[in-house]
C-alpha cells in the first residue's frame, strides 16, 4: 500500500500546485473586477492610476522572450540530462520530452521577434 501511495502522491502534487495557483489568480482577478464594476456602477471615472493601484500591471514587452528562453533552457537541461545518463533509451526518451519545451520556447521567441517588440498600448 505504501509503495503505491508515494508515486501517486508524487504525480498528484504537480496538478494540485497548478490548480492552487490558477485558483488564487482567478480569485484575485475576480475581486479586482468586482471593485471596478462597483466603481462604474457608482459613476466614478477609472483612471490608469486607479487600475495600476488595483494591481493590474502593464505587460512587459519582453515577457515572451523571457518565457521562450526559460523553456529553451529547460529543453537543453533535458537533453544534457539524457546525455549524462548515457543509455540509448534515456537519451531518446529525454530528447523526446525536451522537444515540447523547445518548440514552445521557440514559438515564444518567434512571437517576441514578430509581434512583441512593437509599441503597444500601455494598459495591455
UniProtKB/TrEMBL annotation:
InterPro entries, A to Z: DUF6249
Alphabetical UniProt keywords: Membrane, Transmembrane, Transmembrane helix
Ranges that cross the membrane: 6-24, 67-85, 97-115
Residues covered by the DUF6249 domain: 6-112
Superkingdom in the source lineage: Bacteria
Keyword Iron in record: no
Pfam assignment, any one: DUF6249
Keyword Lipid metabolism appears in the UniProt entry: no
Record's protein name: DUF6249 domain-containing protein
Amino acid at each position: 500500500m505504501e509503495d503505491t501511495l508515494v508515486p501517486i502522491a508524487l504525480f498528484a502534487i504537480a496538478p494540485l500546485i497548478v490548480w492552487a495557483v490558477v485558483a488564487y489568480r482567478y480569485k484575485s482577478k475576480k475581486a479586482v473586477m468586482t471593485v471596478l464594476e462597483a466603481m462604474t456602477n457608482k459613476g466614478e471615472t477609472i483612471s490608469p492610476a486607479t487600475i495600476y493601484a488595483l494591481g493590474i500591471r502593464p505587460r512587459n514587452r519582453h515577457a515572451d522572450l523571457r518565457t521562450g528562453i526559460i523553456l529553451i533552457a529547460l529543453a537543453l537541461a533535458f537533453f544534457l540530462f539524457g546525455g549524462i545518463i548515457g543509455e540509448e533509451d534515456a537519451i531518446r526518451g529525454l530528447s523526446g520530452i525536451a522537444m515540447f519545451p523547445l518548440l514552445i520556447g521557440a514559438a515564444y521567441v518567434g512571437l517576441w521577434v514578430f509581434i512583441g517588440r512593437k509599441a503597444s498600448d500601455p494598459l495591455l
